[in-house]
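A common beginner's mistake is to predict each chain separately and then try to dock the pieces by hand. The better habit, illustrated here, is to supply every component at once so that their relative placement is modeled jointly.
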Amino acid sequence: MHNKSVAELSRELDSGQVSSVELTQQFLDRIKQEDSKYNSFITVTDEQALADARAADKQRAAGNATPWTGVPFAHKDIFCTNGVLTSCGSKMLANFVPPYDATVTANFRQAGAVCLGKTNMDEFAMGSSTESSYYGATTNPWGLSQGDKRVPGGSSGGSAAAVAARLVPAATATDTGGSIRQPAALCGVTGLKPTYGRVSRYGMIAFASSLDQGGTMARTAEDNALMLNVMAGFDPKDSTSIDREVPDYTATLNEPLKGLKIGLPKEYFSEQLSPAMEQQVRNAVKEYEKLGATVKEVSLPNAKLAIAAYYVIAPAEASANLSRFDGVRYGYRCEDPKDLLDLYTRTRAEGFGAEVKRRILVGTYALSAGYFDAYYLKAQKVRRLIQQDFINAFKEVDVLMSPTTPSPAFIQGEKTDDPVTMYLEDVFTIAINLAGIPAISVPAGFVDGLPVGLQIIGDYFSEARLLNAAHQFQQVTDWHQREPQ
Amino acid sequence: MTISRKDIEKVAVLARIRVDDEQVSALEKDLGNILDLVDQLGAADTDSVQPMAHPLDAVQRLRADEVTETNQRESFQAIAPATENGLYLVPRVIE
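With all components supplied together, the output reads:
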């Protein structure tokens, strides 16, 4: 049962072959037996999940089920869950039990889904390897059989590892610079970052407000579509949420791809990509040609500046967003502060981990008097150039395709001492967040026994087209069905 | 680009994060490397470019100035480190 997709589980629940209580118990047992290898969960909510499953079974019996009623899944620990620990992977929030739900959480609750718990993540979503969590690193299920402990990517590495290891069929995730697509690629699952504003950020603990976007993680594109149907939509509680009609993302999954115009950005097939990775991506593109798509090379001339712009804008916004963690109203507080300044400075020194402190300091520096124009304003201008590159590209093609990451999953600890090297792991994903457009990572092969992701990038609000393209690829390939041993 | 010890100490005060001497040395190296990366921005010609504050150039939405929230002080303060009589407690500010 644990190998089935959300769509398949939903059908089995519909037909009465299994009850939600049975299904929930099976996945809970599996988490209990297997997760010590991966550390993909921070919190498992056994009792609540079984209570929700019982309610879902009653709802199905009453004949008013949604596709999600009784289906188990998990939330990234960045989404506030009423009455359930929401730590954001940090010591700072290790005692934070929110008195409210995020809009995304409420939407899944409303749809009748059964949340099994909260998944591990890089602290405050800052990282590309899920090694900076206060709750310990998550291990990628791939590579273990070769004796290697590899990273699952980050920051949604807990969600990606849990889905890859079949501990849950789906999990929510968030993406500020690649934090859905990069771990999806490294764990061999499918992950979608929607257009900025498509999914409410209310109750999603903020890292960089103009870049953060909640999204989806599951094994198949169809399941991602089912998730987005629940998550997308206008939310008056989020002033950055977009008031625009939400389509049924499952309705167009089977549309043929004949005539689809694919652009390959030449800057993403450069020397930073290994020949083996490039070969897998080009093989995937060939599958699209067989499905009737045409391919041409395009250029994103300012792509090379994306990481530099990101590492000004994201830390600057983080320094403002994380100023709320001061030990006064909630979260960690240091012992016996001698005065108010001591309370603030020691609480934040003890509560935040090294990477979070680094980024707050960089952001504070970039925003400080004398540096604002040279760093922050300049980065926001470069951001406009990067956006314009994408706008120009989408005048010529329907979607862009590229590798999701420059290399497969690396060994744990390999890059932790060198932040800049770690930052380069997101070299192909960051520009998408700066522009605010959607992109999906789809399993597209293996290098040295490790998964490779194909990134499909679309114009604003083209999630349905991306899901359609990913689904059609998954009808003719089986990379997304491969299971780590 | 190099970032001086003095700069780091100043920024740490602004960010309200205590850093000890040992950490300052490590931060000199790490922040210097990050600023080297960021300095690539200088290569871009942005003279006639408008800065981009929002990916969709959206403007701030406003709502009617009406009280809509219910009072949830008790549930919010239940998770606070220290409260008394409905107020948050912090160390004495005025002697």
